[in-house]
Amino acid sequence: MSAVHPISQAWISTGGTGAQNYDEFADDAEISRILQDAPHSALGVEMPHRAPDSLGATFAEALPAAAERLAAAQRAGAYRSARDVLGVYRISGRPGGRASHGVFAMVDTAEISGRADEPGLVIRNEDVFLDKVRERVALIEAVDHLLSPVLLLQTEHDAALQDALVQVTETVAPDVRDVDQAGRVHEVWAVSDPAVVGRICDLAGGGELVVADGNHRSLAAQTAGLTRFLSVVTTPGSVDLDPYHRLLSALPEEVPDLVEALRSRGAQVSPLEGPTEVPGEPGVVHLHTPTGGYAVRLPVPAGAAGVDRLDHAVVEAVVVRGVLGWDPGDKRIRYIGGDYPAAWLREQVDAGHAAVAVLIAPVRVDDFVAVNLDRAKMPRKSTWFTPKARAGLVVARREG
Q1: CATH 3.90.1530.10 corresponds to the domain 4-241+384-397
Q2: 291-323 as b/e, with b when 16 or more CB fall inside 10 Å?
Q3: Are 208 and 127 in contact, with CB atoms under 8 Å apart?
Q4: Phi-psi region of 117 (alpha: psi -120 to 50; beta: other; left: phi over 0)
Q5: What distance in Å separates the CA atoms of residue 191 and residue 14, rounded to the nearest whole number?
Q6: Which residue, 89, 153, 103, is CA-closest to 365?
Q7: Of 116, 251, 265, 388, which one is least surrounded by beta carbons within 10 A?
Q8: Are β-strands 122-123 and 209-213 bridged in parallel, bridged antiparallel, or unpaired?
């Protein structure tokens, strides 16, 4: 029996609702600017307190407005109703002219495995921030729908799934077409033919599924008591891994110079000759400070093995917990995904908006899959998968 199912009650976008995922923004003011021109954007539901007419309200205070925005979009015809469908998904415009394929579907919440000793086909691989989970639960309960999918990698039948999805996209015109901020084209085909739906569900759910993006959303589905959660199931060949950096808004008084503090703990630090960029290979991180850029080889903690030797884990252990004495959830740490280039990070420091930028080489897709299939946990905020599905193209009424 497959863990992947069609969407019982879906809402398929007719245009104007697509959005970046709510957690992809380094500056919340960007969300408000987007919503000025796109009132039916899914961002107005997912980040209701950032909508222009809700500014000043807390997330909790703005939840009734979130429910009304979704209902208003449905009444206005920004979505059409569909039952028992899959949303076959294609993203065009990746480097080299490649396309990504996936499928919007519902996945059994009971199959989520969050620990090595917990059974389940859906492997959640990363520590989370509980306050973010609580927000997602509150949103589900307020709007009764799911707008942002969890991105899952099918690891066993990826070639056959890819072929089945490509076949759908080459048969008829898409139901919706949307263009993202990077110029990539996102298209969805609403598929209801029982034979096609059954084959795709069997392939998509036939084996272990790794959570590539949406660890918080998957835990929120469990916490909210959902029987199934909205996902896009895709293949490892349809995704790339970009860097995931850290921006420190300030340093504690007892650490006036991070570079010297790292040297005192055994780090090898060398000034960079040119602009601070993303490291070309794992093993070295780059710092950008008001005095310039540095290449830093951090000391790996004694006894660290496997995933604990990954750069993001070493940064968390040595820099965040060790030198700064912070918890990784400290609000002085901003987690900046690969959509923001090195030049943007440098500008934040040079303009005085941040004290230090920590640039980290991207994790390799093969390493990510291997860590997860071993049921080990990735360091939090260490994988920035691209391209991501647009929120608000396929919306599902919650089940359970």
Answers
A1: yes
A2: eebbbbebebeeeeeebbebbbbbbbbbbbebb
A3: no
A4: alpha
A5: 15
A6: 153
A7: 116
A8: parallel
User: E strands, 168-314, where?
Assistant: 176-179, 185-191, 209-213, 228-234, 240-242, 244-248, 268-271, 285-289, 292-297
User: What pLDDT, in 10s, does the model give residues 256-271?
Assistant: 999 999 999 999 999 9
Q: Domain residue spans in the chain?
A: 4-241+384-397, 244-361
Q: What CA–CA distance (Å, rounded) separates 364 from 241?
A: 7
Distance CA 326, CA 381 (A): 16
What is the spatial distance between Cα 400 and Cα 396, in angstroms, rounded to a whole number? Answer: 12
Tell me what pLDDT residue 136 has.
97
% of the chain beyond a pLDDT of 90: 78
Question: What token pair was written down for 351?
Answer: 């303009």
Burial 79-118 (b: 16+ CB within 10 A, else e): beebeebbbbbbbbbbeeeebbbbbbbbbbbebbbbeeee
User: Token pair of 65, please?
Assistant: 């407005």
